[in-house]
Write a structure and sequence with these properties.
heterodimer, A: 107 residues, Alpha-Beta Plaits, two-stranded antiparallel sheet, 20% helix, B: alpha/beta, Rossmann fold, binds iron/sulfur cluster
Amino acid sequence: MSEGAKRGWRDLPAGALILEAGNAERYFTGDWRTQRPVIDLQKCTHCMLCWFFCPDSAIRVSQAKVEGVDLDHCKGCGICAAVCPVKIRAISMVEETQALRAGKDRE
Amino acid sequence: MTRVVALTGNQAAAEAMRQIRPEVCAAYPITPSTQVMETFAQFVADGRVDTELIPVESEHSAMSACVGAAAAGARVMTATSSQGLALMHEVLYVASGLRLPVVMAVATRALSAPINIHGDHSDAMGSRDAGWIQLYAEDAQEVYDTLLQAVRIAEHPQVLLPVMVCFDGFTTSHTIERLVILEDAEARAFVGEYQPAHPLLDLKRPVTYGPLVLPDYYTEIKRQQREAMDHAPGVIREVGKAFGERFGRFYGLLEAFHLQDAEVALLLMGSAAGTVKGVVEGLRQEGIKAGVLRLRAFRPIPAREVAAALAPLKAVAVLDRADSVGSPGGPLFTDLRAALGELPVRPRMVDYVYGLGGRDLLPEDVRRVYSRLVRLAAGEGEDEAVCQYLTVREAPRPLSPVGGA
Ligand code: SF4
Ligand code: SF4
């Protein structure tokens, strides 16, 4: 669906058909997350295990370096935190409510 | 050029299907609708129609195959009854939810237990909330005519909903009647070609059918279904009128019989309307202002039209050929009472459950109902229940030499 707005019933395809191929990226799967991964980029060795295992392709990577998390699609499953090598533990899972509150405090 | 023929309701349905030439039929036999697909299978075997006929192992599979074929872009038809319709139940919602215009002939029959193969409306009433349009035919001619119309109604771009054409098991499905059959070319021209908007087999425009839809969109998709059903009354009327203009037999949402100046009336669906009309002819000769309102459409329920037709009356009785135990009355009664609820002045309204498991509705039963209505219309008080069983044996009755209830 289009970014930023959800279409009303009159504008949706009848029968919930999806009329374009490859548009899953535009469906934000991140809105029911209860925990979010926070990556400490100081600790990260860019081994790419989290990127490889993330079921929603939500680890943002550029030039073979981990940059952060795509929160529109991250569903908070915690797999990335679990696979991050034990010695490094660069990813911690933070309660979404706390993260949102912290975000608000910054405003 | 038309042909006058003698056919059962089932054969009339098969004849309509042969002329419609659906691309796919998937079916599983069940009494009393078996003869629809049996006759149609013979047409296929004889090369009189080029439909892909898929014999499957159950009605659940039948409707599943219909859904798949319809999503692929085919025009699809099938037939069933009773337990078969019940077994399809889950997939009925898939057909309507995916907005696939499947058309199904339903020879209505009682549901088990106790097991019974005869006619009543319990099966169709069980699927009244499945999002299908339900049209009820009175006789074989109407079965034939309605199936031709049903395809156009289902495929109308503002509707796109599956349609059941219901007719009474045995009474209509197995009785041979005289009816008029159109020329193949005329029937075919009336039905027209199907242009599916999003066929799954169109590889140039790939689409996804049946994605998971969570709380953020499910409500919107259901709201679309209500909108489509809200368009159905207009389309049913429009197609019934177009059919009449071409072939001389007009159809709408309702059929009113002697209702214009009536004070009392019966409301019902299906084949029993014939018996009731006969009784009304007699009552009219006796000076009783009796009428009949037969509903052809039950889903969508023509609430506004029924309310307008009944507003001037003094007393009406609904005849329900299925019960909804635990509710204030049968399914037709509760819907129609709600439909009349908006009227500032309403006729008195009672309900009778009749004809269960194929029990006959006799003219004397109908007369008994009109007698009560006449008393109610005269403002007489009574302590009778609003909803009653019309032909139930309250006490032992000696066996009569000719049988009977
Ligand atoms: S929490 Fe799950 S979805 Fe989110 S980035 Fe980690 S692995 Fe991907
Ligand atoms: S698994 Fe850990 S160390 Fe490896 S790239 Fe991801 S965050 Fe960095």
